[in-house]
Amino acid sequence: MSPAESRDSHRILATRMCSAVQATVVVCLFGMLSCTSPQRGLQSCTDVRGIEQLAPLGYGDQFVLECGTIADGLKEGPWVQYQGGKVSEVSYYVHGRREGISVSLYTHGVVWLVREWRSDKLDGSYFDFDAEGVLRRRAMFRNGLANGSCEWYHGNGALKERGMMVDGEKHGAWEEYDDESKLKVRRRYHHGEEKRSRDL
Questions:
Q1: How far apart are CA 146 and CA 92, in angstroms?
Q2: What is the DSSP letter of 181?
Q3: Which residues contact 192 (CB under 8 A, 6 or more apart)?
Q4: Which residue among 74, 141, 152, 156 is least packed, with the fewest CB closer than 10 Å?
């Protein structure tokens, strides 16, 4: 696949994820509006300035609003974060812990991060897109650490690097590619330490 075809396929994936996020927001909002009875929990909209996980979004000191249901003092069900009046993240909580898929958006509405959670730790698929919707990184996580296959991409959508991660460190065979997807280097790692490399 050429870099242009790769970039187009990444944009299509990001567009589909953005459509899914929009549908999820509608479902979340409907779900929140129907969850106001004392038996189901109290509705909460809270100013959450300075939440650590929002720092990478680049919003600085702007007002952040987080809306969802509080049950027994814990977040429960769908939660939506708004930045400057726009949705910036959609997450799902069970007993105060993130569970399932969360989606973060850039301020102009393009999908930024799609992550899977289990017991408030990254666990499953992880996708990171640039502001134009081109895939930058794809990885698998287990118990909060990168574990499994991992790929990084050049800005033009071409594969940059791929290999396996074990407990957050490169392990085994890794390949590096130029921006035209031509293999440049093969490296071998043992728990993050490079053991040998071969230029091609």
A1: 21
A2: S
A3: 169, 170, 171
A4: 74
* Tens of pLDDT, residue by residue, the chain (200 residues): 666 666 666 656 555 554 544 444 444 443 333 333 233 343 444 444 333 333 333 445 556 688 988 888 899 999 999 888 889 999 999 999 999 999 999 999 999 999 999 999 999 999 999 999 999 999 999 999 999 999 999 999 999 999 999 999 999 999 999 999 999 999 999 999 999 888 87
Residue keyed to tokens 């081109």: 134
Q: Is-contact 179 192, C-beta < 8 A?
A: no
- Tell me the C-alpha distance between 188 and 122, whole Å: 26
For residue 111, give Cα distances in angstroms to 57, 118, 134, 140, 175.
12, 21, 10, 18, 27
How far apart CA 171 and CA 135 sit, in angstroms, is 23
